[in-house]
Automatic annotation (TrEMBL), chain A:
NCBIfam families: sigma70-ECF
Keywords of this entry: Membrane, Sigma factor, Transcription, Transcription regulation, Transmembrane, Transmembrane helix
Family in the record: Belongs to the sigma-70 factor family. ECF subfamily.
Ranges of residues in domain RNA polymerase sigma factor 70 region 4 type: 108-159
Protein name in the entry: Sigma-70 family RNA polymerase sigma factor
Keyword Endoplasmic reticulum among record annotations: no
Gene3D superfamilies per the UniProt record, alphabetical: 1.10.1740.10, Winged helix-like DNA-binding domain superfamily/Winged helix DNA-binding domain (1.10.10.10)
Ranges in a coiled coil: none
Pfam families for this protein: Sigma70_r2, Sigma70_r4_2
């Protein structure tokens, strides 16, 4: 890594880091400050990162640590380090469907996501949306890779089982109505 | 249970799964929850399920992939809106500034060990007091006009002792006050405080007066170092109190403060109190100038104005207090402390700015035409005792000349 790479890494990951940070339900300003710290930290520690493939993982870990320490400072109870919110929502705008149907998709997925714990949402976000390996996600969540696998598996299972079947039928019905 | 039991169970499971695999049309697939979940979260279990599906209905492979491509446009985003392009650019700028600051700091550490251990505080004191300060308040303030006013006739550095005795000190000479309150000038003991009770001893204050074109260097009883610039009056106790260390200044000083957590160090000017939180610092102050400022080289200082507002500044920052407003900006501290080395150092600086610094150092006024003020200069100027030597240096390197009348120096371009 070289000094001038910081700008490159910023262009590449700043938006993703912001999206990840904002999921913790904290102010935009706090997320922006945290991202600034993360990149300055990257600048100071760049000699330690030999493999550019590790930069993304480094940035995400670093941002998570920063946010946890901010939340810890805000919290009256220093011990409640695992108690944080992580919110996700579905975005169906890219789908080639009617807008009402898009809304139905978003509704369905949001219902499913609400069945999960914050940690489960964070894990599936990092693994499936940010394409981080089980090992990387495990480090960010501060659990073992095995537990990560289990956490994600249970999350998907919960979503599969959790929603009443009539909801899906309703979706089908609506799509039927629109196609005719 | 024997192997048979296991086989039966496996068979049952497989059979059950087969039963669950119902052939679907593309439209059905994209509305199927399991299918949607597979598209978004391809777990091993779901992968196996759809592998089985294709084993049963291999002709549906194209249909399945097409449905999958449609559903995969679904995204999971986090709450709120994404970073705006303005937020993106502003943050990038902040990060670049932070990096530049770190690079500068590293470079500076290499250049000067001394500077690395220091803080620079630059205070420009307003002679015309703020309208909001009443005369009563003025009296309670430690810096009254009488106590810290420089006699314009004075030509040499003077040290006025607590017992009213005044002595001349050679220019740029070290004055040392030891922990017992003994004063030495160039290693010659000149004053021994009467061994009275400590309460009397601590209340004794000395005043150092440095006229224009002169500098002085002082070592305080706690071994803190003070560089005193031209046109400055500094009041400091014979011995510091047990709970704080306080000095008063009108002019410009640069300090390296010895660390002592039990006795915080304060620098007081007519408009602010500076509390030193780091290890070293440097102060400069002129009552007659419009704005006061503090430049920090290293460490941390807190500045309080007369309204009780506190502002902390970090290294490479300059705080300016002007018309009751405190503003902080980034600067290269050496541009403000090079006078301690007896030089003015500048790079691509306007001639106008250089004349400003010279006028502060020599306490004179320049009259410079606007077209010359924007003239860019780089280099060093040695701050000779006599301003004329400095002006002659400028004259030989720039297409300018000067004329002096009544304390005002007129600068004008020379004819080519």
């Amino acid at each position: 890594m070289k000094t001038n790479d910081i700008g490159y890494w910023y262009e590449r990951y700043a938006d993703e880091l912001f999206a990840y940070g904002i999921a913790f339900c904290i102010d935009r300003e706090i997320v922006l400050d945290a991202i600034q710290d993360v990149f300055l930290h990257l600048y100071e520690n760049q000699s330690k990162i030999q493999d550019p493939n590790n930069v993304k993982f480094y940035l995400f870990t670093s941002l998570k640590n920063r946010i946890i320490s901010i939340l810890r400072k805000e919290s009256q109870f220093q011990e409640l380090t695992d108690e944080y919110q992580f919110e996700l929502c579905a975005d169906a705008q890219e789908l080639t469907l009617e807008s009402e149907e898009k809304a139905q998709y978003e509704n369905l997925l949001n219902q499913l996501l609400s069945l999960l714990t914050s940690k489960q949402r964070e894990a599936i976000y990092l693994h499936y949306m940010q394409n981080l390996s089980y090992e990387d996600v495990a480090q960010i969540l501060n659990i073992t890779p095995k537990s990560t696998r289990k956490l994600i598996y249970r999350a998907i299972q919960k979503m599969q089982e959790g929603l009443p079947i009539y909801f899906v039928l309703l979706l089908l019905l609506i799509s039927y109505k629109y196609s005719h | 249970m024997g192997p048979l039991g296991v086989n039966v169970r496996l068979f049952e499971k497989e059979n059950k799964m087969r039963q669950n695999i119902i052939r679907k049309t593309e439209d059905e697939l994209i509305h199927d929850k399991t299918f949607i979940l597979w598209c978004l979260f391809p777990t091993q279990e779901l992968n196996e399920f759809y592998q089985d599906y294709l084993k049963l209905y291999p002709e549906d492979e194209a249909l399945l992939l097409s449905a999958r491509n449609k559903v995969r446009k679904l995204r999971l985003s986090t709450r709120g809106t994404a970073m705006t392009s303005i937020e993106h650019d502003v943050l990038k700028n902040r990060i670049q500034q932070g990096i530049a600051k770190r690079q500068k700091r590293q470079l500076f550490l290499r250049i000067s060990y001394l500077a690395a251990a220091c803080i620079l505080l630059l205070i420009l004191v307003n002679l015309f007091q703020q309208a909001g300060i009443s005369e009563n308040e003025m009296e309670t303030m430690p810096l009254t006009a009488e106590s810290l006013q420089l006699d314009q006739q004075q030509t040499e550095v003077e040290l006025q002792l607590a017992n009213e005795q005044t002595m001349q000190v050679p220019n740029n000479t070290e004055i040392r006050v030891d922990a017992k309150g003994q004063i030495q000038i160039e290693n010659k003991a000149i004053h021994s405080i009467a061994q009275a009770t400590p309460s009397v001893a601590v209340s004794q204050e000395n005043t150092l007066r440095v006229p224009r074109g002169r500098r002085s260097f002082l070592i305080l009883p706690d071994s803190s170092k003070v560089w005193v610039n031209a046109g400055t009056i500094l009041r400091f106790p014979q011995q510091f109190q047990t709970d704080n260390r306080t000095i008063h200044v009108n002019g410009e000083i640069y300090l390296e403060v010895k660390k002592d957590p039990t006795r915080p160090f304060f620098v007081k000017t007519s408009q602010m109190d500076i509390r030193v939180l780091g290890t070293s610092f440097c102060v400069t102050a002129y009552q007659e100038e419009e704005a006061q400022s503090v430049v920090l080289k290293e460490g941390l200082v807190a500045v309080n104005d007369r309204n009780g507002t506190e502002q902390k500044i970090t290294p490479d920052e300059m705080l300016v207090l002007s018309q009751d407003q405190m503003t902080v900006k980034e600067v290269d501290p050496y541009n403000y402390i090079s006078w301690i080395d007896g030089i003015l150092q500048f790079k691509e600086r306007n001639l106008g700015q250089i004349l400003d610094q010279l006028s502060r150092y020599y306490r004179i006024t320049f009259n410079c035409p606007e077209e010359l003020e924007s003239f860019k200069c780089s280099g060093k100027l040695v701050l000779f005792d006599d301003i004329h030597q400095v002006l002659n240096t400028l004259k030989t390197s720039l297409p300018i000349s000067y004329q002096e009348k009544d304390e005002v120096i007129d600068i004008y371009p020379t004819q080519e």
